[in-house]
Design brief:
A hairpin with a 2-residue loop joins strand 8 (102-110) and strand 9. It is globular and about 45 Å long. Strands 1, 2, 3, 4, 5, 6, 7, 8, 9, 10, 11, 12, 13 and 14 form a 14-stranded antiparallel sheet that branches. It is mostly beta strands. 0% of the residues lie in helices and 55% in strands. It has strands at 2-6, 18-19, 24-32, 42-51, 61-69, 77-83, 89-97, 102-110, 113-121, 130-138, 141-146, 149-155, 165-171, 175-183. It contains no helices and 14 strands.
Length: 193
């Protein structure tokens, strides 16, 4: 069920120790040796996707990673979503906003503007601390998780897989990610883990 995992222990963000490497698309990101969660390196300010045209409209999936904020400022967020492949327009965006202690779900996003479907208050996120962030599609429900707890959820008929890319990106933010995993199943099904 695991489609690709980014361990980020190689010589670049897209090399070595990346399972399913051929399907991972590293748009940007730099390896950093100082802050890894598990190994010796992590990736700084990543835009990383998993290209899989085999997903059908009804397919379930999960994206999860460890994220660490270098600073907490207005407009700096961690986001995961499903896109149509250009990383600018996408079908779904789940966003952690540590500055305002919120999580959001947007659909039909184009260049940062979309339709807000859900929002929720999240626990305080501290800088320089690792957090587990996951986004899951299970049927017509999308759920965002923080440290194993569901924090924001939305159910609607527009939750579907029209795009061929699933991706993690830290948007406009000096942040880090480690152990990025793409899965072809709903791993958590809305439950804490």
């Amino acid at each position: 069920y695991t489609l690709g995992v980014g361990h980020f222990e190689g010589t670049s963000a897209g090399e070595n120790a990346v399972e399913g490497k051929d399907a991972l698309r590293v748009v940007s990101g730099s390896l950093i040796s100082d802050y890894s969660k598990f190994g010796t390196k992590c990736v700084y300010s990543p835009k990383i996707g998993y290209a899989n045209t085999g997903f059908t409209e009804g397919s379930d999936w999960t994206i999860d990673a460890w994220v660490r904020f270098y600073a907490i400022s207005d407009g700096w967020t961690a986001q995961m979503g499903i896109g149509i492949g250009d990383y600018e327009s996408y079908d779904l965006d789940v966003k952690l906003d540590p500055y305002n202690s919120n999580a959001y779900i947007f659909t039909d996003v184009s260049r940062g503007v979309g339709t807000e479907k859900a929002s929720a208050t999240i626990p305080t996120i501290a800088k320089d601390t690792w957090y587990h962030f996951a986004v899951e599609k299970h049927g017509n429900t999308i759920t965002g998780y923080l440290d194993g707890n569901p924090v924001v959820s939305y159910t609607g008929s527009e939750i579907k897989n029209t795009g061929s890319y699933r991706y993690l990106w830290i948007h406009n933010n000096p942040s880090y990610a480690d152990e990025l995993r793409f899965s072809s199943i709903a791993r958590y099904k809305g439950q804490p883990f």
